[in-house]
Amino acid sequence: MLKKTILLTIVTAMALQLSGQFNSEASTLKKHVNILASDSLLGRGFGTPQGYLAAQYIASQFKAAGIDPLNGAYLHPFNHREGILNIPGNNVVGIIPGNNPELKDEYIVLGAHFDHLGWKISDEDTVVYNGADDNASGTAAIIEIGRMLAARQGSLGRSIVFVAFDGEESGLIGSTHFVKNSTVPPHKIKLMFSLDMVGMYKARGGLDLGGIKMLNDYEQLTITLASDYGITVKKANKSVEQRTDTAPFGNIGIPAVHVYTGLESPYHEPGDEASYLDYEGMARVTNYISAVTSQLASAEIISDLPVLGEDQVTGSTTKTFRTGTRVNVGTSHFNYRNEPILGKSIIATQVGFFANIQASRHLMIQPELLYETKGSQTFDGNFRTHSFTAPLNLLLATSDDQFARAYFQFGGYYSYHFGGRIGSDKIDFENIYNRHEFGITYGVGMEVMNLQIGLYFQNGLSNLLQDSNPADLHITHKNIYFMMGFMF
User: Fold this and answer.
1) pTM, 2 dp
2) What domains are there in the chain, each with its CATH number?
């Protein structure tokens, strides 16, 4: 019986080899995950000694797989500035050179972040966030993809670059460094894959490929080739995922695909352990992405997206133009400019849209179009206007290569009051009150990836009363808002 089993295994392996199919072993993937997600590595925190040990392990496995070091080294160290701290990180980078004279100087990048959340003390016990699915799974996968592609190096047209990114959990730090510092010339990168959480194929019921529709042959890749490897593609779109290492590549125009089996594991919880992963499913995903990469490495054109020039990708990886939605909630009251009194506050709100234009690394221009309701308590009842308000602000921000950046904003606004009431009576905009208002704005805030939060002030300069008012009063709005914005 044992001899028959051995013979069957040999025949199956030979058949797969002859058919050209890739065949990674679930047991090998499990070995990598067990090491990377072990308690001894304490969650592979960014900038920790255990993170460095993980990087060394990955480098050794790149070498064993037949992946060459890039520029003579597997470890590519960098420093990340956080306040007064310099945090050391290491990307692990290798390459399999292409063989087509016309394509070998172009690159496909296969990336997976290896860092996770580290550990904490709870009830005098060390709790480790091992991050088996997130993302020892993706790291194990690119090691094995590298091993299989290295064995077929002679058939590759383009060069394949393998990167285990550090600092993803702290704000895509390693991948941003890789792109900004031209470890590989970005204008030569034709495609990027980020394998981030690929260990729960069966529980997910398939594989998500965010961004795959940016590629010319995506239908053949997601239907025919996927079927050959027993892969069900659950989700395919043409959007670059911003929460993983695809973002710095996609934000400068490089097609970038997120390979993902969903949030089926205990995401960012201590329970994300190696024992819970679906290694047979991981092997399927690994074989499939190997086949996709091999095919695209020799494709004449990978994507019809505009070809990037060298001068287009040497700057910031932050998008230069973004749009978003805004909801601000706060209070408003009257300021009697010629009197030593203030009106009593009422609730004020703003909701609408804004654009964020990156003028330079530290300067943004932000126009907005909002519906606003504001006013003040008066002796005749609550004075409340309904307006279209258009603020225009300059934002002076900290560096754009941080997970979170702070900013100070200042500018001006214009409001057109299209309606309102004083108590139960309509506001008379024809004879008493001005429909047009302008003033200054200032505030402080923070941008965390696609989210803006902060504190925002509006001080009116123009008189709400028309010049002909008999009391010669000068009344302006003073508003304060807690602002929340989401950028697409």
Assistant:
1) 0.67
2) 16-312 (3.40.630.10), 321-487 (2.40.160.20)
